[in-house]
Design brief:
2 copies of one chain form a homodimer. By secondary structure, chain A is of the alpha/beta class. Chain A has helices at about 45-50, 60-75, 80-85, 95-100, 125-135, 155-180, 200-210, 230-240, 255-265, 275-280, 310-315, 320-325, 330-360, 360-370; strands spanning about 1-10, 15-20, 25-30, 30, 55-60, 90, 105, 110-115, 120-125, 140-145, 190, 190-195, 215-220, 250, 270, 285, 290. Helix content of chain A is about 45%, strand content about 20%. The first copy, chain A, has a 5-stranded parallel beta sheet with strand order 4-15-14-13-12. Chain A has a 4-stranded parallel beta sheet with strand order 5-6-10-11. The longest helix of chain A has 28 residues, at about 330-360. Chain A is globular, with a radius of gyration of 20 Å. At the A-B interface, α2, α3, α12 and α13 of A face α2, α3, α12 and α13 of B.
Chain lengths: ~375, ~375
């Protein structure tokens, strides 16, 4: 993996860059659609390319390990071959899912024991095992196995958890360096900063993570329920410590406004289930603001879903048509809504990149944060 | 509407033709994907064009009248404007749905009173009212309001019902001729032959329907549970009476084999929910046979969904990937399966047309009926 910085906003810490992987380039800042089970929910691969222009998608180690199972993906020749997505992929380590989804879990120094949320079967994830699984899944960017602390989290728990996440990271890096991709292309490992909302811990964690000297770095344990102000404070503190010449990935964030604020603080990569999950509940992000498409008010509104969208489908279909589909629980409603939201998110980061390069990011951001979060 | 016959198979009654409507041409024999609520379930409009090459889709008067409501479609400027489908549309009259879906119904000479299956609200469909609704929905081809008799149906009931269907037809035709399309393009009305599985009634009904001298004719009340042999016998009898120079539409049929047999008997148009409904249950039609994609046997089968398909998506995605999606209840599984089945159905009628023109329909049909219905 290579990362090159192409522009720096004069007024904020926002930057435009380019990540090069063996599966192609990623222009940053970037939003990565979440494909939990190896496919973005309700969206075809061809649509991710033509309507959304997704440059990288995310897969979930926890889910893929359980279903279809690492063996199936390995036999397929890796996730790219399995799901026919030939652009870059990132897999998270499953740390977050072990804590948020699994039925019963025991965290020990050795690793995390848990029961599957699907069938209750018992599993044990160690840092080494998670590296091996992610090697077999074969994403271009893989993530360290960490503990994502909840919010609120008392100081003592946060200290101990961070310590373990750091020791697990050393084991991840060791295993990662001892192994190689089974599929002939290169993979890179991102470590994850933890430390909850404690400034001293975040500083300590960011310094430790930076010292590991990996090709990119991630910020975890945020967007888990804390106030936005805390998230921004921690992000800024961490970004100022993480090396400039490497991409920074803020995990699990967020709303369009969160993403713009994150970019302003120096973040290059984002992922979140929000655009697709909210789409399935009838909540649309548009360039004019947020729409609850189920509302009666759209019943006879024959204006385009988003007249300003650069996605043709949103300029063609009307709010009334989409409202009808969503109201009747037609899958096609969720499909169109998901494409709408993802195309808005990708448009947003493309625009941010353009504005950073033009040096007009700050005024544009100020206007967009208000506009995009307006309830229509 | 115009219909021209282009070829006649020398060994069967199969024919190739061309229907011209104000929204474009339809090459027959044709299969019409069902878009109950104005959109084919789980399939985008752009996919109907690019992956499936659907030439005409079907909408449901009963459903569209209830949701989004005739007023919304009228305000939109008709169904084509509402759903952004610019090729031909056919709407059925709602007769079938009144009997199969609505909670309580009373059939009188005047019309059918029923309660909505959604909210129990009371409605009254008369032949005149159904013509008015279909004028407002604005399909290119609209259907007469009839009673679709169930199977089995005693002779006396079938006689009386057929008589009423014929009287309703006269009222439909009268109202249709007194009115015109509100949207400036032409609409045509197809009457429907009934008569259950009784030869004398089918003959009587077909003669009556032919005497109405409309631009096309339909055969209803079949594929409702009777043995295939009865369906074919009635279809043959009716096709021999209905005029050659007009398209014949066999409503609600059927499996790939049913369609090939129907074509051989002189049918030009088909519709059925089977390809999309079965797709949502994991049943795939392929050129090699029928697949239950949920089966464990496909878990690590990395061969294409249908290697012979003329739909690129089915040559790209593997059975193992689709099995994974369907197994995990991912919407995308239903989406890909629906496109697969519809693309197979449309391929089938295109091939039939080609074989009819080449004079090789009979041996090809014999081979395909066995092949397509094989369980893999």
């Amino acid at each position: 993996m290579k990362f090159s910085l192409e522009a720096q906003d004069p007024n904020t810490k926002a930057r435009a860059g380019r990540i090069t992987t063996d599966h192609g380039e990623i222009e940053t800042p970037i939003f990565m659609p979440v494909g939990t089970l190896g496919a973005v929910k309700a969206v075809h691969m061809h649509e991710l390319k033509t309507f959304i222009d997704a440059q990288i998608i995310l897969g979930n180690t926890y889910h893929l390990y359980l279903r279809p199972g690492t063996d199936v993906i390995e036999k397929a020749g890796g996730l790219h071959k399995f799901n026919s997505w030939d652009r870059p992929i990132l897999t998270d380590s499953g740390g977050y899912q072990v804590y948020s989804l699994s039925a019963i879990r025991k965290i020990k120094e050795e690793g995390a024991e848990f029961r599957s949320h699907i069938d209750g079967s018992k599993h044990f994830f160690t840092p080494e095992f998670v590296m091996d699984v992610q090697r077999k899944i074969g994403a271009d960017i893989i993530m360290a196995f960490d503990e994502c602390t909840p919010y609120p989290c008392d100081y003592k728990y946060a200290v101990n958890s961070m310590g373990m996440t750091h020791r697990w990271l050393e084991r991840c890096v060791k295993r990662f360096k001892e192994t190689e991709s089974p599929y002939g292309y290169s993979q890179t490992l991102f470590p994850i900063v933890q430390g909850s909302v404690y400034r001293d811990l975040r500083k300590q964690s960011a310094e430790f993570i930076a010292s590991m000297d990996m090709e990119g770095n991630a910020i975890g344990g945020l967007s888990v329920g804390e106030p936005d102000a805390d998230m921004y404070e921690m992000t800024e503190l961490v970004c100022d410590i993480l090396p400039k010449e490497k991409p920074r990935y803020l995990m699990g964030v967020g709303t369009p406004a969160n993403i713009l604020e994150g970019i302003a603080l120096g973040v290059d990569m984002f992922d979140c289930v929000m655009p697709t999950r909210n789409a399935r509940n009838g909540m649309l992000f548009t360039q004019s603001g947020i729409i609850n498409i189920k509302n009666e008010k759209w019943r006879s509104d024959f204006s385009p879903i988003d007249p300003d969208s650069d996605c043709e489908m949103m300029r063609t279909h009307t709010k009334a048509f989409l409202r009808h589909l969503v109201h009747e629980n037609e899958m096609l409603g969720a499909q169109i809504s998901s494409i709408n939201n993802l195309s808005l998110y990708l448009w947003l980061v493309r625009q941010a990149r353009k504005k950073i390069k033009e040096g007009t990011f700050t005024p544009w951001k100020k206007e967009m944060v208000v506009k995009l979060m307006t309830r229509l």
